[in-house]
Structure to design on (99 residues):
């Protein structure tokens, strides 16, 4: 895993000191490519999570920024899955609420 704040640090450094950083544009591109790759993998994992109707997910090796990027989607997905399950199987959900 990269530094937990790699995006924030890169943005700060490149926005305020890019004249002092050799190959700043290449670094910006590489960090953006890293971000895009990590987010693409996270989206695939989230898609798999939702399509398999999982009840929980383990989010290891993610930065806070990455979690915040996908957090709303995952929360809303879980809410929708719960609503669908209660509509399709109301008796099972009532029993699980009693536990």
């Amino acid at each position: 895993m990269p530094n937990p704040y790699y995006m924030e640090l890169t943005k700060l450094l490149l926005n305020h000191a890019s004249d002092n950083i050799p190959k700043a544009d290449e670094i910006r591109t590489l960090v953006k490519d890293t971000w895009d790759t990590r987010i693409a993998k996270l989206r695939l994992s989230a898609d798999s999570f939702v399509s398999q109707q999982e009840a929980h997910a383990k989010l290891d090796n993610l930065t806070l920024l990455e979690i915040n990027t996908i957090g709303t989607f995952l929360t809303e997905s879980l809410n929708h899955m719960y609503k669908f399950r209660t509509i399709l199987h109301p008796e099972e959900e009532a029993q699980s609420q009693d536990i």
Observations:
- Helices lie at 6-17, 24-51, 64-88, 90-98.
- The chain has four helices and no strands.
- Residues 3 and 9 are 9 Å apart (CA to CA).
